[in-house]
Write a structure and sequence with these properties.
The complex is a heterodimer of chains A (157) and B (265).
Chain A: E1 2-8, E2 11-17, H1 23-30, E3 49-52, E4 55-58, E5 71-73, H2 86-93, H3 103-116, H4 122-128, H5 140-156
Parallel strand pairs in A: 1-5
Antiparallel strand pairs in A: 1-2, 3-4, 3-5
Helix pairs in contact in A: 2-5, 3-5
Chain B: E1 5-8, H1 12-21, E2 25-28, H2 34-39, E3 47-50, E4 60-63, E5 66-70, H3 75-80, H4 82-87, H5 89-96, H6 101-106, H7 109-115, H8 122-129, E6 132-135, E7 139-141, H9 142-145, E8 146-148, E9 151-152, E10 160-166, E11 170-177, E12 184-193, E13 196-202, E14 210-211, H10 213-221, H11 246-264
Parallel strand pairs in B: 1-3, 2-3
Antiparallel strand pairs in B: 4-5, 5-10, 6-7, 6-10, 8-9, 11-12, 12-13, 13-14
The chains are: A alpha+beta (157), B alpha+beta (265).
Bound molecules: flavin-adenine dinucleotide and FE2/S2 (inorganic) cluster (2 copies).
GO molecular function, one term (chain B): FAD binding
Protein name (chain B): Carbon-monoxide dehydrogenase medium subunit
Pfam families (chain B): FAD_binding_5
Chain lengths: 157, 265
């Protein structure tokens, strides 16, 4: 066991884990943040996407020890109290989800994508979400949500 | 995943020492290949030595006609680097099409070429541009580095520290991605160097990345897409799998090669 500490959604956390513990397991099982999902566990689907030091990564493909000392943001860290983050609100308004399983990862990828490139075409949004798979929506409303979320984020600045 | 011990190396020499002390140590860079491999229990190293803390291995520098990229530089950093975009746009473009955004945020150039996946993109860039692979012990030219499927000239405890790319007169990489994995079904790097044209192919070779001599001499004669309407003599054995037959891949080599030449302008 090793002690792994990091900052998650602004809060310092720490737990004793085996080195082979994945970051997503650490977040879900040790810290109790189950918003981050595991869809495939084979680095394909993006349900587990979170931000580590401001970059979106697949938390099923990173060890918790590798993130020691880092600033982590999960889907639980986006909203401001009861106020949804503009990207979350956009997914709700635009029917960007059905079962919702892929949604935490989609939203986290989308926030990273539009923060880096505020003016994206629909094609660029689709390319930017290459690492996120949804088996319900057919993606159309996801793209619409990301576009709306991007505009709302710009307006909020 | 089997159990292992974890070390975060603070420098290359620290990592080298940790590798020597371990009974069966393995380097972890971005982990985007190694962690999936460990999850499938296809490997069981006694120790993982993480290069993530070796800041000396991360970064891009341009000196005259040479672009040097540290082994721990991520695909995203190469793709977004203004220096690479201006010196070797083909290389920045190649990096921007590896996998997806999350893979590019963690995956590294050193990890990609150490792994030498037969469908990976960077091996084509190294071989096509005639790069030099710098390790903690020596320098290896790309022509000697990629020795077979998932095989390289690296010794057991050898660590890649950087890759040096000579600036081409012009170059272009064209990839036909597998629509599911995004890896190259066939990827062709065409580079016009001061010493002559080099053409390297990934995704197609049964022994990994290779050069196409027939294309290189044809393009040395006349640098135009129609020069590639020739027989590709001396091709190595091509891959045969559920994604494509050798004949299909051979055709794609020509199609992607022509597109690359055309895009070079
Ligand atoms: C969903 C997905 C899609 C992908 N798509 C593509 C694609 O389209 N094209 C493509 O080319 N790749 C693709 N990849 C692979 C990706 O580019 C990996 O990042 C890369 O192959 C390995 O780099 P890494 O830094 O993650 O290395 P790791 O996984 O950490 O290591 C890989 C191997 O290299 C060794 N190693 C790492 N660094 C060094 C070093 N400095 N010196 C010596 N040995 C070292 C390790 O010991 C290990 O054996 C994809 C991966 C995923 C998960
Ligand atoms: S659970 Fe991590 S990519 Fe699918
Ligand atoms: S909403 Fe069900 S998987 Fe995307």
């Amino acid at each position: 066991m090793t002690n792994v500490s990091m900052t998650v959604n602004g809060r310092p956390v720490s737990a004793d884990v085996e080195p082979r513990t994945l970051l997503v397991e650490y977040l879900r099982e040790n810290i109790g943040l189950t918003g981050t999902h595991v869809g495939c566990d084979t680095s394909q689907c993006g349900a587990c996407v979170i931000h580590v030091d401001g970059k979106s990564v697949k938390s099923c493909t990173m060890l918790a020890v590798q993130a020691a000392g880092c600033e982590v943001t999960t889907i639980e860290g986006l909203a401001n109290g009861d106020d949804l983050h503009p990207m979350q609100a956009a997914f709700r308004e635009n029917h960007g989800l059905q079962c919702g399983f892929c949604t935490p990862g989609m939203v986290m990828s989308a926030v990273d994508l539009v923060t880096k490139n505020p003016d994206l075409t629909d094609t660029e949004i689709r390319d930017g979400l290459e690492g996120n798979i949804c088996r319900c929506t057919g993606y159309h409303n996801i793209v619409k949500s990301v576009r709306a979320g991007s505009n709302a984020m710009k307006a909020a600045e | 995943m089997y159990e292992f011990n974890y070390h975060k190396a603070s420098s290359v020499s620290d990592a080298e020492q940790a590798l020597r002390n371990a009974s069966d140590g393995k380097i972890v860079a971005g982990g985007q290949t190694l962690l999936p491999t460990l999850k499938q229990r296809l490997a069981s190293p006694s120790d993982l030595i993480d290069l993530g803390g070796c800041s000396e291995l991360c970064g891009i520098s341009v000196d005259g006609d040479t672009v040097t990229i540290g082994a721990m530089t991520t695909h995203a950093m190469v793709a977004n680097s203004a220096e690479v975009q201006s010196a070797i746009p083909a290389l920045a473009g190649l990096a921007s099409n590896i996998g997806d955004a999350q893979v590019r945020n963690l995956g590294t150039i050193g990890g990609s070429i150490a792994n030498n996946d037969p469908a990976a993109d960077y091996p084509a860039a190294c071989l096509g541009l005639g790069a030099v692979i710098v390790t903690d012990k020596r320098e290896i030219v790309a022509d000697d580095f990629f020795t077979g499927l998932f095989e390289t000239a690296l010794d057991e405890h050898e660590i890649i520290t950087a890759i040096r790319f000579p600036k081409p007169e012009k170059a272009c990489y064209q990839k036909f991605p597998n629509p599911a994995s995004r890896y190259a079904l066939v990827g062709v790097m065409v580079a016009k160097m001061s010493s002559g044209v080099r053409v390297a192919v990934t995704g197609a070779g049964a022994d990994g990345v290779f050069r196409v001599d027939a294309f290189e001499s044809a393009l040395d004669g006349s640098f135009s897409a129609s020069s590639l309407d020739i027989e590709m003599v001396h091709l190595p054995d091509l891959l045969e799998d559920i994604h494509g037959s050798p004949g299909y891949r051979e055709n794609l080599i020509r199609v992607m090669g022509k597109r690359a030449v055309e895009a070079c302008g």
